[in-house]
Amino acid sequence: MAKDGVIWDEHHLESHIKIFPEGQFCAELDGKIVASSSSLVISLIPDYQEHTWKQAMAYGMFTNHTLEGDSLYGADISTHPDSRGLGIATMLYDARKDLAVKLNLRRMIAGGRLFNYCKYAEKMSAQEYAEKVVKGEIKDLVLSFQLYNGFKFIKVLPNYMRDARSLNYASFIEWINPKYVPQKRSDPQK
């Protein structure tokens, strides 16, 4: 049976740490891990290319990670339900932003599942739902939080990942690094 959402297996986490240890964060509270985030560096050509989670993550293995890329891609972020509302996820987002600045990456991007879309699907399209979240007319656990953390909604990504709540839709989000200094990079296609 296929799993919904992101559930890392041990071999995925080992690959993330081996390939890009500085892009993996976790938060500890009272001696227990209560939150984590996983990231890798890639380039999308064109910048807002439609993609799936599996394509962006190389099926969860991060083997497509390259420091020649220009974007820190947020693969996953999660906080244990008992630890939500404490600012931990915001701290993880801030750590990722700091990493993007440190690596002089142009931006941070991600696909975030449209968490509550299942409640609205009979009334509106995923695009209409996302636009209402952006306007503050609907609250979405994921997209509203990402907007709060300084991300801009770019577009809806259909068939992003198998997920019953979002009906497989995600929002493509972007945060532009205000300290980015353009440099000549190698062509990521070579």
Strand order of the largest sheet: 1-2-3-4-6-5
Question: What level of helicity do the residues show?
Answer: 10-25%
The fourth-level CATH homologous superfamily is Gcn5-related N-acetyltransferase (GNAT)
Which percent range describes the beta-strand content? 15-25%
Query: How much is the average pLDDT?
Result: 92
Largest sheet: 6 strands, mixed
Q: What is the succession of H and E elements?
A: HEEHEHEHHEE
Mass-distribution shape: globular
Radius of gyration: 16 Å
Could you say what the CATH topology is called? Aminopeptidase
The counted number of beta strands is 6
Number of helices: 5
- Count of separate structural domains: 1
CATH architecture: 3-Layer(aba) Sandwich
Show unreliable segments: 1-5
Distance between the termini: 38 Å
Reading off the top of the CATH hierarchy, the class is best stated as Alpha Beta
How would you portray this structure in words?
The protein is an alpha+beta fold and about 190 residues long. It has one domain (about 10-175): Aminopeptidase, CATH 3.40.630.30. Helices cover about 25% and strands about 25% of the residues. The chain has 5 helices and 6 strands; from the N terminus they run H-E-E-H-E-H-E-H-H-E-E. Strand 3 (about 70-80), helix 3 and strand 4 (about 105-115) form a beta-alpha-beta unit.
